[in-house]
Design goal:
The complex is a heterodimer of chains A (312) and B (431).
Chain A: H1 18-34, E1 49-54, H2 59-71, E2 75-80, H3 92-102, E3 106-111, H4 116-123, E4 127-133, H5 139-152, E5 160-164, H6 171-182, E6 186-190, E7 205-207, H7 210-216, E8 220-223, H8 239-246, H9 250-259, E9 262-264, H10 277-280, H11 287-304
Parallel strand pairs in A: 1-2, 1-3, 3-4, 5-6, 5-8, 6-7, 8-9
Helix pairs in contact in A: 1-5, 1-11, 2-11, 5-6, 5-11
Chain B: E1 7-16, E2 19-29, E3 35-39, E4 49-52, E5 57-60, E6 62-67, H1 80-89, E7 92-97, H2 108-121, E8 126-128, H3 144-149, E9 155-156, H4 165-177, E10 182-185, H5 189-192, E11 197-198, H6 201-206, E12 210-211, H7 213-230, E13 234-237, H8 242-253, E14 258-262, H9 264-268, H10 290-302, E15 307-308, H11 317-320, H12 337-346, H13 353-367, E16 382-393, E17 412-422, E18 425-428
Parallel strand pairs in B: 1-4, 1-5, 6-7, 7-8, 9-10, 10-13, 11-12, 13-14, 14-15
Antiparallel strand pairs in B: 1-2, 2-3, 5-16, 16-17, 17-18
The chains are: A alpha/beta (312), B alpha/beta (431).
Amino acid sequence: MRDLKPRKDLLDIEGLELPEIEYVLSNAVPFKQLFQRSVKKVPTLRGKTVLNLFYEPSTRTSSSFEVAANRMSADVTNFTVSSSSVVKGESLLDTIETLQAMRSDYIVIRHQAAGVPNIVAQHTGASVINAGDGYHAHPTQALLDAMTFREVYPDYQGRKMVIVGDVLHSRVARSTSTLFHKLGIEVGVLGPGTLIPPGRHEFIRRFRSWDEVFDWKPDAVYLLRVQLERQEGMFFPSIAEYHKMYGMNTERLVRMRQIGAYLMHPGPVNRGVEITDEAMRYERSLISTQVENGIAVRMAVLHWLKPETDTD
Amino acid sequence: MPSATPRLFQNGRIASADSKELLAADVLVDETGTIVAVAPGLSAPAGAEVIDCGGSVLVPGMFDVHVHAREPGQEHKETLATCSAAALRGGVTGVVLMPDTSPPVDTGNLVKSARDLIAELSAIPMFQSGCLTKGREGKEMAGFSGMASRGVPMLTDADRAVPCPDLLRRCMEYACDFDLLVTSHCDTPALTKAGAINEGRVSYRFGLPGIPAISQEIAIDRDIRVAQHTGAKLHLQQISTARGLKSVQCAKEAGTSVTCEVSPHHLVLSEQDIRDYNTHFKFNPPLRPAADVEALVAGFIDGSIDVLACDHAPHTEFEKSSEFGSAPFGAAGLETTVPLMFDRFISKGVFGWDLLIERYSAAPRRLVGLAPVAIIEGAKAEFFVFDPEGETPVTRETMKTKSPVSPFLGETLAGNVRGTVLGTAWYPQGK
């Protein structure tokens, strides 16, 4: 293998170097091939423990990490903190102390507050994997998106993707656009001005309408989930208007087919909001591939990170 | 440690607001705490304590108009005793206390009680300010006449703006009757919301809710306009953007009675300095882009900014150790401000002691109706000994505040306050 500096944590995409990204993405391929076999497990992490710590409900991401860890033969503990006992700032240190006592080798953490995985990582020898923190980052999502894009476009460099929706409140948009930019894939965004923060990323092209998007001929269209609970009635007038302006509908699907663009979505989808039922059946939808690749990429991440928990 | 011993400070170099030159001289302080002689080669009277300053700079005591001492009510963060110890460590010999204690100081009786506590517990003069509105709630006017009769130096809702322009207008109108200074924390709560850092590239990258610059700028414009309308004397706290400063400059040119302050952290740090979700860099107003910092430094030098004030706002390390979004705003500043200004500006020749003394000693005293202090014969001794060759390590162990929380933790700043003189008392500090 290449000479990579051992890395303890995966907290965001910004800090990653290209060889590291390449290492994870290329390792994910054989892990995925494993899924076709009757025995889907490898013994790589036998005897190691993975703690799945979710402060925000997420069945999908949590299960994906659990399956990935199981297929690596690690022992997995799931720890879901109900929203009623949402951690106040005060208890974060106590939580870290508790985690230390559990002596996990890997801590997968999702938290509603940006930066919590960073703080946990500073205080533990375990490898911390950020499974989504506030609006900050969701690095494994970005990696699985990249893997998915590269599967359909082996000549991915110079290709184009447009992200549609609530970029402002999206950790997925942050991480995925940053990773795609690093990989040499052009990124554009489409959405209401209230949800597209101006000037935040110099490399992102902003579109004001679907017409502009289709003229650009993107190779993939990435729909973001509309975070209904985050709208506070301040960002667009109504769901119906959002759907009309930015949703993937029949008419737009026709144009998708014309340019042969793939459709991506981080899930779970809001049918009738960012996407119609019909668009869900689009033949070039990569949504379930993304889910499958999520497991492979997370296995590759577990394989790559080096916890500092060994005492020998 | 008051004593009736005369003290001779030998081999000093005296700084003042009026001169760029340092004056080589000895300073003799008599047993009443009065400076009786300032001249080279003074000989020590019998029984006098002799302090060899070894060429250190003797600087008039600083005065900070923006201090949260936390007592009464939040003594776990800071007390009047630890706050005054931190002040003396930093060469600060007088402060204005914000009224956001528990309970908030919003009546004459509470001012009286605060003054009693200060007299009992503080080693330095502390001037208790009062609230503009009852309980700092921004709903009803507080008891101005009672507070005025107890000598409050200013009225402010401390870290909170008065959201209703009508109430602000009435507060300003009424404050004029008592000739009271109205001090504004410039903020538009409806825009700031749950913001944690400056809104922009950095907040986006961190995924943290942002505080837009217009939140402060609109409040500055509004408060200036209301002050112009009512004729009130207005002081604006913690200007943090170039555009906000421009508003103040325009108002001054128009003859408005307005002054403003800047905090040391806004002069030396930008939003780019925030790393790894370190909450010691979480301030309100937040650290801004570098272009704003440059404009503030220029305004500090040209006088558009009148006063330096550190916003000493201690929170415990534990409180600050939570995730960035929910950690409290603010840090300790009293003991680091002078060495920081020396380290970043004076030692590099950006400006001299005269400017720092004007902004951090003379102007703030004038702002609250006090006479500036100077190291001259006949004056009360109120100065500190600053060793430009020394250094100030900023560490948890060396800080005097009860809450050693500072964006400069881990740094060693150039220069050191060797000791502070206040009347008959001499407070030697770290080596």
